[in-house]
Amino acid sequence: MDRPSNELRDAYAASLGERIRSCRGGLTREEFARRLDLHVNTIGKFERGVTIPDAFAVLRMAEIGKCPPEWLLTGNVKSDRVERNVRAVESGDYIYVPHFDVAMSAGNGVFCDVERVVAMRPFEAKFIRQELGIGHNELALVSVIGNSMEPLLRSRDTTMLDLLAKDVLTEGIHAIRLDGALMLKQLQRLPGKVLRVSSSNPEYAPFEIDGSDEESQRDFSVLGRVRWGGVTFN
């Protein structure tokens, strides 16, 4: 088997291992192994991506963990657990970052509840660890639509989010959820509990969110900070 095939196999095994761990949920590895009639070390090898389970074992895991078998096998079926638990996977010299099927609006917001992994995109581990300075795997890739962040980000560009960077005191562009819409915006903390939400495109006026006004509380949360962007040329 040539090197590219080995790398693909290792990446798939590592990604599958993450999904197996996610599907196991609150069960201990020992309990999961007992229900599957397998040795606990075998489960450990599956979850670490050392070995790949056969189809029957995958079906049994899906049944016990109450996960869609298609998602467990491929990662391409929507699952509530995917949205909460899928992480980037490090294998050799690469980190495979999940690309989620969500559109982060760079306009006035696009409503989208479909949050599933469509691919695991490879990045050099050295780039993420050293150039970006990210030492964890809580990362996600999402696509951009709209023009409110132009010329910085354009529609169809891809952005990498640091899902642990939710402190809006840090300068940068953040992914936010506002009234059910997903957006990429520049956030600035003002005195009090006020956030100014602004765009790069001057055609879009900034607006403010007042966290101290209980009567006008909005559905708002910071999802992460943009750490990298990939440009798409028309």
Description:
- With 234 residues, the chain is an alpha+beta fold.
- The protein folds into 2 domains: 3-85, 434 Repressor (Amino-terminal Domain) (Orthogonal Bundle); 89-230, Umud Fragment, subunit A (Ribbon), CATH 2.10.109.10.
- It is built from 7 helices and 11 strands.
- The chain has helices at 3-24, 29-36, 40-48, 55-65, 69-74, 80-85, 125-131, and strands spanning 89-91, 94-105, 110-111, 117-124, 139-145, 158-162, 173-178, 181-190, 194-198, 207-210, 220-230.
- Strands 1, 2, 3, 4, 5, 6, 7, 8, 9, 10 and 11 form an 11-stranded mixed sheet that branches.
- A hairpin with a 3-residue loop joins β8 and β9.
- α2 (29-36) crosses α3 (40-48).
- The longest helix is centred in the N-terminal third of the chain and has 22 residues, at 3-24.
- It is elongated.
- The two termini are 38 Å apart.
- The model is unreliable at 78-84 and 110-114 (pLDDT under 50).
Name the CATH architecture of the largest domain.
Answer: Ribbon
Structural class: alpha+beta
Number of domains: 2
Element order: H for helix, E for strand: HHHHHHEEEEHEEEEEEE
CATH topology-level fold name of the largest domain: Umud Fragment, subunit A
Main CATH class of the largest domain:
Mainly Beta
Rg, please? Answer: 20 Å
Task: Please estimate the helix content.
Answer: 25-40%
| Unreliable parts | 78-84, 110-114
Shape: elongated
User: In what range is the share of β-strand residues?
Assistant: 25-35%
